[in-house]
Amino acid sequence: MLIVDSSGVIRFANHHVAELFGHPPERVVGLSVEALIPARYRAPHEADRGRFMRERRERSMGSGLDLVALRADGTEFPVEISLGHVVCEPEAFVVAAIRDITGHLEAERALKEAREQAERANLAKSRFLATASHDLRQPLQSLSLLAGTLRRLSLSPEVQEAVGSIESAVGTMSRLLNALLDVSKLESGKIKPDIRGFPIAVLFREMRTEFTAAADGKGLDLAIEPTEEYANSDALLVGQILRNLIANAIRYTKRGAVSLCCRRDGDAVRIEVRDEGEGIPPEDIERIFDKFYRVHASDRRRAGTGLGLAICRGFMEAMGGTITVRNRNDRPGAVFTVSLPVEATMRKEAVA
Q1: 62 CB burial (10 A radius; 0-12, 13-18, 19+)
Q2: What is the pLDDT of residues 130-161, one digit of tens each?
Q3: What pLDDT, on the 0 to 100 scale, is given for residue 75?
Q4: Of 274, 190, 275, 284, nearest to 237 (Cα)?
Q5: Is residue 107 part of a domain?
Q6: Nearest-angstrom CA–CA distance, 29 and 23
Q7: What is the pLDDT of residues 229-265, one digit of tens each?
Q8: Strand 2-5's sheet: what is its strand order?
Q9: Comparing C-alpha atoms, which of 262, 270, 264, 248 is closest to residue 201?
């Protein structure tokens, strides 16, 4: 800490000055404060000091300035300084609290370097995932074709059972590779949504065609409500999201119904996928969209890759929409809501 008079002469220096500047306090007292500043900054500092004395305002530590001080041995070091006024009539003084921030700046540089390294590693990972996914798809397609050929050539129940296991394993691997490829595209910014108006009813018809058999196979009712709403978004990405949500709803619902509906909410349309399954434990609600997080991770028969919902959220963020989840109040089960910008012009034209 220093106390400086209106002419810039140091009147007081506490014992920390020796540690910070290398000057004993008694040698500092009587010096011009500019003696503690590199020569290139002395003239501007003298002008700033005069203005500060006239304005008599407070200045907090640093104030976003890159300040440098000078040690007795000629080395420079970065500092933060807070200034205040003390008036002892007829003279006014400035009190300066000075802090060496060398360690702070080094920590900031280290953090910046670590962040840049992490970003480079993340980009390299995304590139690897994309390359690996593409390279592995071809042999998987070949395995699928060979399994189909083997199924047609053999009528043996044992062979048919083995082929079924092969096809199941190939299907699982294909889904995982597709998920990894979607993640890598999201992380590398390669997902470029094609935003345009489209009728939601078209997607609803596709969902009915694709999932009716799966729902019937489990004895579930797939209830899809008619809608005349239009959304302004990417129909392909929205379709992928709905496929993931409906497939999950059917997987985790043992009895009852899975429903799909659409509602207008101001300038948005809200598409809801409802199930009558077990619902989501409250402690998992906030994490369910995280990558690799699985509610039923301990149950290998039910747990997936933990990427599907994370990909859904990534697609929604890329399109400027939102996806949320809540448990149902009226019965067991969960409700996933996809909110998209409404396209009102096309609906008016369709009605006309």
Answers
A1: middle
A2: 666 667 777 878 888 888 888 888 778 888 88
A3: 92
A4: 190
A5: no
A6: 10
A7: 999 999 989 998 999 899 999 988 999 999 999 999 8
A8: 10-13, 2-5, 91-100, 76-88, 67-70
A9: 262
Q: How far apart are CA 278 and CA 283, in angstroms?
A: 14
Q: Are residues 122 and 237 in the same domain?
A: no
Q: How far apart are CA 90 and CA 287, in angstroms?
A: 65
| Last-in-domain residue among 162, 187, 212 | 187
C-alpha to C-alpha distances, 110 to 104, 107, 113, 117, 145, nearest whole angstrom: 10, 5, 5, 10, 52
- The amino acid at residue 98 is I
Is residue 59 located within the same domain as residue 130?
A: no
pLDDT category of residue 124 using cuts at 50, 70 and 90: confident
Taking a C-beta distance cutoff of 8 angstroms, is the pair 87, 5 a contact? no
> pLDDT grade, residue 301 (50/70/90)?
very low
Would you give the end-to-end CA distance of the chain in angstroms? 78
pLDDT of 212 higher than 90? yes
Same-domain pairing of 219 and 331: yes
pLDDT digits over 261-284, tens only? Answer: 999 988 999 999 999 988 888 888
d(CA 1, CA 11): 11
The answer to whether the beta carbons of residues 251 and 302 sit under 8 Å apart is yes
Number of structural domains the chain divides into: 3
